[in-house]
Amino acid sequence: MAASKTAIANTTEFLRRFDQLGIADIPIVGGKNASLGEMIRKLKSKGICVPDGFATTTAAYRHYLESTGLDEKIRGLFADLEVTNVANLQQGGLAVRQAILDTPIPFDLIVTIHDAYRVLCADNPNAAVAVRSSATA
What is the mean pLDDT of the chain? Predict the structure, then answer.
C-alpha cells in the first residue's frame, strides 16, 4: 500500500513538510526552505507547480550536535581561536568541518529522514530530488 503525505506528521521537532512552511519559519528551517513552503501554499491553488519536499529543522541539527558530543568537541576546537588570525580561523574551520564529516548522524534522525523520503517518493519511486542547505541566521 502506498504511503500518503499525511504519514509525515504535520509538525515534528526534526522535520517539516514544505506545504506546512512559510516565511515565519525561517528561524527553524532557513530562507530557501521557508520560501519553498510559501510558494507551495500560495501558488499550488493557482496551478503553478513547485517541487514538493521537506526540511530538517534547527532542532534536528542541535540534536545531532548534542547526542553525538559534537557540540563539546566544537567548543574545544574553538577554545584557542584567534579571531584576528586568518590562518587560525581557516584551520579551526577545517577542523570543525572534518569533525562533522567524521561524526555519524544519529539513528533516530536517519529514520525520520528516511521515512519522509519514502513518503515523498511513494507516488514516484524514481523522483528526482535535490538536497540543499538553507541557513537560518
Answer: 87
Q: What is the dihedral of CA 84, 75, 56, 27, to 10 degrees?
A: -60
Q: Is the pTM of this model over 0.90?
A: no
**Which run of H or of E encompasses 135?**
none
Helices (H), 55-120: 58-68, 70-77, 86-102, 107-120
Domain ranges of the chain: 5-68+106-120
Contact 129, 53 (CB under 8 A): yes
Q: Which CATH number fits domain 5-68+106-120: 3.30.1490.20, 2.40.110.10, 3.20.20.150, 1.20.1380.10?
A: 3.30.1490.20
Nearest to 19 by CA among 35, 41, 3, 34: 41
Question: Which helix (DSSP H) or strand (DSSP E) does residue 15 occupy?
Answer: strand 15-17
CA 108 – CA 86 distance, rounded (Å): 37
On whether the CB atoms of residues 9 and 112 are closer than 8 A, the answer is no
The H or E element that residue 3 is part of is none
**How confident is the model at residue 122, as a pLDDT?**
87
